[in-house]
Write a structure and sequence with these properties.
The chain is of the alpha+beta class. Helices cover 38% and strands 26% of the residues. The strands form 2 sheets. Strands 1-2 form a two-stranded parallel sheet. A two-stranded antiparallel sheet has the order 3-4. A hairpin with a 2-residue loop joins β3 and β4. The longest helix has 19 residues.
């Protein structure tokens, strides 16, 4: 049973419900096509991480965007 965890920043730039559905379907299809995995047992989880909890280069995404 494949398990895929996708993490994205939440807030204003969070993916829409339609985009999440496309990600889930696309990843499931990719695993079936490339690795011959059963789509019925493939699990895809999308976690939205608050930008204050996502750091790049020693600063949160929130802080980095304020500086841009």
């Amino acid at each position: 049973m494949p398990y895929v965890n996708i993490k994205v920043t939440g807030g204003r730039e969070a993916p829409s419900a339609e985009q999440k559905a496309e990600l889930i379907a696309g990843v499931t299809d990719l695993l079936a096509r490339v690795l011959n995995k059963n789509p019925e047992t493939t699990v895809v989880v999308i976690d939205e991480v608050d930008m204050d909890n996502w750091g790049i280069g020693g600063k949160s995404v929130t802080e980095r965007r304020k500086q841009s």
